[in-house]
Amino acid sequence: MKTEPLTKIRVLFAYYFEPRDDLIMAGELLQGFGAHPGMKLKLKEGEGSWRVTGICHLPPEAVMAEPPHIGLGLHNSDNPRQPLEAGQHLIEVRD
């Protein structure tokens, strides 16, 4: 039986932060309560998965927006330079 992911995030923008090849991403939290370091996310459609390395601080108006905005630091150990594009959806991976 397939279950719905607890967390779903739509990418607004993303860029790479040198020198660690961590991806900094801003997105809209479509479903769930947020993200936490260590959480795994993957593309809803396509290949690629990322581990949340940190939470970025956003202004209160972004957090209170509807849907709420979220800022994350991400790392993809399989393909560190794999891009994320605006409009893509990330969902939580549960082991």
Note the overall shape.
Answer: globular
Order of helices and strands: EEEEHEE
Mean pLDDT: 88
Distance between the termini: 15 Å
Can you characterise this structure?
The protein is mostly beta strands and 95 residues long. 4% of the residues lie in helices and 46% in strands. It is built from one helix and six strands, in the order ββββαββ. Strands 1-2-5-4-3-6 form a six-stranded antiparallel barrel. The longest helix is centred in the middle third of the chain and has 4 residues. The two termini are 15 Å apart. The model has no long low-confidence stretch (mean pLDDT 88).
Q: Brief description of this entry?
A:
Helix content is 4%, strand content 46%. Strand 1 and strand 2 form a beta hairpin.
What's the SSE blueprint?
Elements: E1 8-17, E2 22-31, E3 40-43, E4 49-56, H1 60-63, E5 69-75, E6 89-93
Antiparallel strand pairs: 1-2, 1-6, 2-5, 3-4, 3-6, 4-5
Give keywords.
6-stranded antiparallel β-barrel; 95 residues; 4% helix; 1 helix
